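During the reporting period the student researcher (J.K.) took over the structure-prediction task from the postdoctoral fellow and processed the backlog of single-chain submissions. One of the processed entries is reproduced below for the supervisory committee.
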Amino acid sequence: MQTPSSSPKAALDLGAAIDTAVSAAHAGAAILQSYAHRRDDLVIDHKAHNDLVSQADREAEAAVLEVLRERTPQYGIVAEETGGEAQGAATWYIDPLDGTTNFLHGIPHYCVSIALVAKAGTQVGPGAPLDIDTPVIGVVYDPNREELFTGVHGVGAWLNGRRITCSRTATLEESVLATGFPFRDFSFADQYMPMLRDAICTARGVRRMGAAALDLAWTAAGRYDGYWEMGLAPWDVAAGTLILREAGGVCHDMHGDEPWPVGGRVVSGNPQVAEALARMIAPHLKARG
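J.K. obtained the following structure tokens:
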């Protein structure tokens, strides 16, 4: 007979968590869209060079946090504008507006990104507890196209309720790749620029749209075959990592020393392209500073 102290901990309720994340994403997106056609009314601050935050970011984050704190007070929260830290069995990672520069310039390519990352040792379903920290819930919502990308660990990934899978493109030469240019932190530009040169010369095409969460979601849906970027934040990539993995793709830390790209250096794609992309960037990648 098990004593209370030796009883297994209850598994995370991923069904309730995905419902909560979807509700929170819609709440945040409603704020964004209320400002989308009156951007001149926004109060905009500069956190750093080319790093902008607007009233829309802050209010959207507040709307997301209200839903998450009301429904899942047991989880930690790490949010772009208000901060926080990972704690407990799982932590929400929130970007209320991924693609702020696009939004402020009237470019309709931005999203709300919400992920739940479970701590190593957490039970998330049948079988053994997680060996490593792992994103287990991902929601990326594009309010302009009304496209809702969702993923649940071990269950699958969907776009507006329809299951999605990554592409089957076999080679870099046949691939359309996504990336993001250095825009805020230029300390890695000497590594990135040769990667970009090689990609331009090798791949069928390279795109830079300006919203990392959507880049990952679009890779999960097969629109891109692979995606790499440096200089991101955990909340930029947490949700997209889970969605892409559940769509049959891979999403790794570029250096291979973190369980998911929490350090903001991402290499990803369908399994064949991601492997080829990793080989392409490896000669230019320096040890993490």
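The committee noted the following: The longest strand covers residues 90-98.
J.K. will present the remaining backlog at the next meeting.
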